[in-house]
Amino acid sequence: MRPGDWLVIAAGLLLCAYAGATLWRGGAPDKAVIRAGGELFGEYPLSARRTVEVPGPLGVTLIEIEPGRARVAADPGPRQYCVRQGWLTQAGAVAICAPNQVSLGLSGRGGQYDSLNY
């Protein structure tokens, strides 16, 4: 290999690192969208702290909203998958509490797309 080959390889690696850092980020979320029983329960801005109690068939799901993020803090479901998901911080992120029919999603201008959205 010649010195020019190493230069091309280094430039390619830098370009890949830059593209990964800038293009694989989700957009900043601006509101939390809460659904209960398939219906829209409420949309809340992510600019202030609040706690929302969402009734479901099994009981009340507790959702915490803080500036720039939201999470399911407590759910009466048996496996607690939506609680374990933790803080959602990117537009397009979703936590679904299926047994209690409650979901929390973040929306914004630059949401990520995956097979669920496709």
Features:
118 residues, alpha+beta, mini-chromosome maintenance (MCM) complex, domain 2, 4-stranded antiparallel sheet, 3-stranded antiparallel sheet, 21% helix, 38% strand, elongated, NusG_2_sf
| The CATH superfamily title of the domain at 29-108 | N-utilization substance G protein NusG, insert domain
Report Rg: 19 Å
Strand-residue proportion:
35-45%
Following the backbone from N to C, one meets helices and strands in this order, namely HEEEEEHEE
User: What would CATH call the architecture of the domain at 29-108?
Assistant: Sandwich
According to DSSP, the number of beta strands is 7
- Which sequence of strands runs across the widest sheet? 2-1-7-6
Query: What average pLDDT do the residues reach?
Result: 88
Our measurement of the CA-to-CA distance between the termini, rounded to an integer number of angstroms, reads 44 Å
Furnish the topology, listing elements before pairings.
Layout: H1 3-23, E1 29-36, E2 39-45, E3 50-55, E4 60-66, E5 69-74, H2 81-84, E6 94-97, E7 102-108
Antiparallel strand pairs: 1-2, 1-7, 3-4, 4-5, 6-7
